[in-house]
Amino acid sequence: MEKYEHDIVKTMEIIDDSQKDEYANLFTSKSEGYSRIYPKSNEDLKTLFSGFDFEDKNVLSVLASSDQVFCSYYLGARSVDTFDLNFLAEHYYYLRKWLLEYKLEYYPDFKKYSSGSLWIRELLDMVECQSVEEEITYKYWNLYNKKIGDFSHKTIFKFCDYDFSYDLIVDDVSKMRDLIKDKSLNFTQMDITGNIKKRKKYDVIILSNILEYCSYELDRLERCRDNLFDMLEDGGEIITSHLMDFATIPTESYVFSAKFDAWEFPSDSNVLLGRGCCYTKKK
Ligand SMILES: C[S@@+](CC[C@H](N)C(=O)[O-])C[C@H]1O[C@@H](n2cnc3c(N)ncnc32)[C@H](O)[C@@H]1O
Fold first, then answer.
1. DSSP state at residue 268
2. For atom 26 of ligand 1, which residue has the closest CA?
């Protein structure tokens, strides 16, 4: 079975199986790498990234909604490698890249597209694939439209209950389109808290509220800390965020303090969606 056929079969299994869906939502190793996708970041990235310099930096980021990747390039990153437990993040990245390239839109406008997933059909009709990866993703979304395509989008996208009313980093969509045109996606499906292959070091590593999902699992937290330590350049910075607890919880602080210094930001306690924690290597 080709990769895209496998993906779509797995997507349907997750959707139809409430237990698998629950595992996927908890981001456990049992999730089998398929989960619904946040169509846009649930965080205020402008606030979160405001204290960091991305200029000419090599970045490693969770892929998720793809916002972290687009924003890193927009802020001047030299290269951005990505990872996620969720295979669908890779397919969604290309949908967003095509939206930029062919329609000059940064996010899918779900309100405008009242005809549900038909917007994906319309977009696919405009696409000329530039790589094997794009061809695979094209086939994936083609099959999605035929086999799952729905009016609510809730089969595949995860919508947040609260409002995303924050300023965007990307304020010039043409500039974003031009920046991303020649960039190829470097994506690895992996659990950052697992036993992973570490090939490179990075100046900035972005974890988007991932640590909250394993905050009481000491072995996963410790493996994650060690993975990050090995992959971070001396002098590099890890940007994490908190959306459920709004602050670093004691187990995470305790585990990470063995190898990292930490500071929480911003100091304004009214900020909710952009709260974060930065880890740097202990000297
Ligand atoms: C809770 S979501 C946050 C969404 C994010 N703010 C965004 O912009 O889309 C966390 C993302 O990290 C991924 N993830 C969670 N735990 C992970 C882990 N241990 N290793 C790799 N990716 C993980 C999820 O699949 C999801 O894409």
1. -
2. 64
